[in-house]
Write a structure and sequence with these properties.
The chain is built from no helices and 43 strands. It has a 25-stranded parallel beta sheet that branches. Strands 1, 4, 7, 9, 11, 13, 14, 17 and 18 form a nine-stranded parallel beta sheet that branches. A four-stranded parallel beta sheet has the order 16-20-23-26, with no helix packed on it. The mean pLDDT is 94.
Length: 356
């Protein structure tokens, strides 16, 4: 085991590591040759650090980012760092920027944040992925694709899509943490994915994201931009809260549905200027509680549980609307626009499943 504050290889230097562990608390600078000798480098301590140097590619065997301060940043200014065995992120921030972090090694993340701004498929490491914590951030100024082709890379924890451009996900199956879309970034979901129901999908981007495959998310929180859901697609809300402020809009095309199917009581709030949802399904035996009016243009499907309106109302906007009941009811206020002429329709209002 060897400890360094800063480690610098000069323009005339050649450093061959031993095969054990090197601890570096400060900067690593490679201006000529570093032979890793199958050794491990651990970036530790509570201070930020920089990887820099004039060489094009630095090959490292095993790298561990284990900063004692979560806000400490290890910045990669080296053009290319290639991982032979493994890159492990325990705590702290590793910022690749627009440089390259690649290699056939494995990627393990249990904490901290991996930030990548390069406009390509990222992370570029191609070995086996094990992401059980932490955050992967795609913050490039243009289009980026989240890697899901490596073994284990169809499961991530926290994901941040920021800055600008299309952020594309394909073959992503599971998200065990929060999702944040911010800046003017646009989320392109080329695959169905399922988020932990106790986590939150935050949409803070000014961009217009189009949902082209059904998604299962936890809580929903939108304060900006537009989310457009293609016809035939379900957005399944499995968390406690659906929360949308006046700056955000959700557009449901054709038969697209917002589906409330959580395992506990769910809450709805929308104070935007265009709060109308085209189609809504409630399939939750514990019910949906309104903290604002629920405005629906086309179809309300009651499959299970009550919509408790409190002092608000369910408002069926169009006179061609349809309320379809399998098992469920509205406990509270219902306002409907009705077509002219004779009209016969059962409206499921009441206080329980038998008295409605």
């Amino acid at each position: 085991m060897t400890n360094f504050n800063n480690l610098t290889i000069t323009a005339n230097g050649i450093l061959t590591s031993h095969s054990y562990i090197i601890y570096i608390e400060g900067n690593f600078t490679n201006n000529r040759t570093f032979n890793h000798n199958n050794g491990t480098i651990i970036f530790s301590g509570n201070n930020s650090a920089i990887l820099s140097g004039s060489v094009v590619t630095t090959n490292l065997y095993r790298v561990i980012i284990n900063k004692s301060l979560s806000s400490a940043v290890v910045t990669q200014n080296l053009s290319t760092v290639s991982i032979v065995n493994s890159f492990e992120l325990n705590e702290g921030i590793y910022d690749v920027g627009t440089n390259t972090l690649n290699g056939a090694g494995n990627l393990t993340i249990i904490g901290g944040e991996l930030k990548i701004a390069k406009l390509t498929t990222v992370p570029e490491i191609t070995g086996t992925y094990s992401i059980t914590g932490g955050t992967v951030t795609l913050n490039g100024a243009g289009n980026q694709i989240l890697r899901t082709s490596a073994t284990g890379s169809n499961t991530y924890f926290n994901l941040i899509f920021s800055n600008a451009g299309n952020k594309t996900i394909t073959n992503l199956l599971t998200i065990n943490g929060d999702v944040v879309v911010s800046g003017s970034a646009i989320l392109v979901n080329n695959s169905v994915f399922t988020q932990n129901p106790n986590k939150t999908f935050y949409y803070q981007s000014s961009g217009n994201s189009i949902i082209v495959n059904s998604i299962n998310i936890g809580n929903f929180n939108q304060n900006n931009g537009i989310i457009t859901v293609n016809t035939g697609i379900n957005v399944n809300i499995r968390g406690i809260n659906y929360y949308k402020t006046s700056n955000g809009a959700v557009t449901l095309n054709g038969t697209a549905i917002i589906f409330f199917n959580g395992s506990g009581i769910q809450f709805y709030f929308d104070n935007s200027s265009l709060p109308n949802l085209t189609n809504v399904t409630v399939n939750n035996s514990n019910g949906l509680v309104l903290n604002s009016d629920l405005r629906i243009t086309n179809n309300l499907n009651l499959q299970s549980g009550a919509i408790r309106t409190q002092s608000y109302e369910v408002y069926m906007v169009n006179n061609t609307h349809s309320i379809n009941r399998t098992n469920g009811f509205i406990n509270g206020w219902l306002t409907c626009n009705l077509p002219s002429g004779a009209y016969n329709k059962l409206y499921p209002l009441g206080c329980n499943n038998t008295d409605y």
